[in-house]
Write the structure tokens for this entry.
Amino acid sequence: MNEEKHILSILVDNEPGVLSRIAGLFSGRGYNIESLCVAETLEPKISRITMVTKADSIAIEQIKKQLHKLINTIKVIELTGQDFVQREMVLVKVTAKPENRAEILRIVDIFRCKVVDVGKEHYTIEVTGDEGKINALLSLLRPIGIKEIAKTGIIALNREPK
Amino acid sequence: MEELTGSQILMRSLKAEGVDTIFGYPGGAVIDIYDELARTDIKHILVRHEQGAVHAADGYARASGRTGVCMVTSGPGATNTVTGIASAYMDSIPLVVITGQVPTHLIGNDAFQEVDIVGITRPCTKHNYLLKDAADIAKTIKEAFYIARSGRPGPVLIDLPKDITSKITSYEPVGEIKMKSYNPTYEPNQKQLKKVIDLVLEAKRPVIFAGGGVILSKGSEELTEFARKAQIPVTMSLMGLGAFPGTDPLSMGMIGMHGTYRANMSTGECDLLIGIGVRFDDRVTGKTDSFASQANIVHIDIDPTSIRKNIPVATPVVGDCRCTLKKLNEMLDRSNLDGIGEKRSAWFKQIEQWKSTNPLAYSQGSAIKPQFVVEQLYELTQGEAIITTEVGQNQMWAAQYYHFDKPGHFITSGGLGCMGFGLPAAIGAQVARPDKLVVDIAGDGSIQMNSQEMATAMQYGLPVKIVILNNGYLGMVRQWQELFYEKRYACTQMSTAPDFVKLAEAYGAAGLRASKPEDVIPVLKQGLFELRDRPVIMDFVVEQEESVYPMVPAGAPITEMLLV
Ligand SMILES: Cc1ncc(C[n+]2csc(CCOP(=O)(O)OP(=O)(O)O)c2C)c(N)n1
Ligand SMILES: [Mg+2]
């Protein structure tokens, strides 16, 4: 069956060991985690986990039910298929030789991102956006030379009715 | 508010949960708790190995319908519980396991007898806790018992660092708790029930497939009423035996790898399969594509993850089995059931024919047949004994030849298939039911895994009976080797075993042996009745290469059985 990407937003008790229960559930049952983002919500006792996983329609039903079955899980929301906004932030360290600095800055300008660190031979760029924007930026920077990147993983929220 | 030590709070909290018995083993990390325990009227059963404590608590839970409780020390005490916990987890048995832990300031330092038991047992407990504050003890115990017994039951572990067990804190009893993140669904959806009733009224070839969930929800009476009212034949999983009377004309016996011919055939041909409190384990379904392939499958279970995990289900019902069956019965009362029996008459005739052409059978020989021993055990005890089992052929023959009419009488490690389960489980069952005859149907291999618990049975005067079907082999593995590995019996012959009669005697128990078919009944009579007041090992030297039939080879459709 066809594996598709699913974005899940999971509210859990903000307690030690909860993340390990979720990671253990995925490794123990052979599901995969593409990205995972965890932080406290407005209510300090509750954390939101935003998870991207790849699964077919039967597996995703199981994944959601298994997540819900964990005693520390309060709510499991699947955003995929709903109207939602998603963002990811990436820090990109690019090689910035004198001859291509101008080009880098032009790209930064077009994508409305920021240079957050300037070194002797490198710029670090901060970019926020959805997957499409980030991939487009990375493909433009790749020929110039990317030294390393750090991604936050996707965070997402459903849209409220207008 | 009272000022109490952590250990005192623990005891108060256990008493508040109605705990009267703990199976355990002491050690440094729990010494304060034990000191306090000895001042209460809670009975402590000192086992000989912590695995035994957990299986005993499991047997206690199943025989009593209550939550079993264990207590062990940190490190090796804790790791020794893991197999028992995993078995209880697979079979959804409510347990609370309390493990000692090194003092909080040493956690993470690789201290003496430190293990991360919460980490180790995370995937085999329903939930677990590491407590860091004595003030949390009362609430956590309350929560642990609630989680263990509610919804789909299971084991819950609480790890208690030594320092908090002696720390003095103010104690306040905890009232009812409500958990935001845990709220199992008991009440089924009415629309789904309506669909089920319509299917029941229409079906020409229906089958009920009942499992351990019916027993756990205490829904056996409701199931019996439902099957009889709706005139539907019933098959049971290993865990479901006793959920419906095995001697009822509607019973088709066990389904699956060693199920009866009629149970497996009817599942293959039915037009409606109602799974109740089951999880469609691979030992039941065989090849899933051909499992009940002509049927509309209804699946009633309290655990949503069980539904559509292994097989596609057209009509899911999430709810407590007992509560759901009760509602279905009320709906049946309001339905027109005229002629329902006649509608199924061709189906009943077909089932009867499967039964008469291929009944459960074995042939007598010059050696004792293990099936004969179980059959005679059934006759002599009139089906009234609580039977525990070890794992392997002994377990399957127990399931096939002892007929269970009531829940709580067949106690076996179903999901984990854990050798060494039967004797400690029998001990736990005997503690729960002192009035009952409790018999462990054992194999010569399995009994050696926890035979040390004979000493426990002796110490507490628990007159459990052990019936060893001694075939000199790890018989079930040998059977696979015979059938699928051209009789290459790699490492399955147990050429050296203790003399089980002398072993019994060494513990101060009675030991008996039967070597010829004519010895079987006298030995059973003596061991079960004349020596009723004490533990007895009965060693039945049986046909060595007897196999369990029918058998569905792993991964084959369950309608394709190897027959005797
Ligand atoms: C702890 C454990 N180890 C290994 C197995 C694999 N196993 C399943 S049945 C069996 C043979 C059991 O032999 P015995 O107790 O003599 O029973 P029999 O099949 O001969 O009746 C084995 C080794 C198991 N189920 N549990
Ligand atoms: Mg054997």
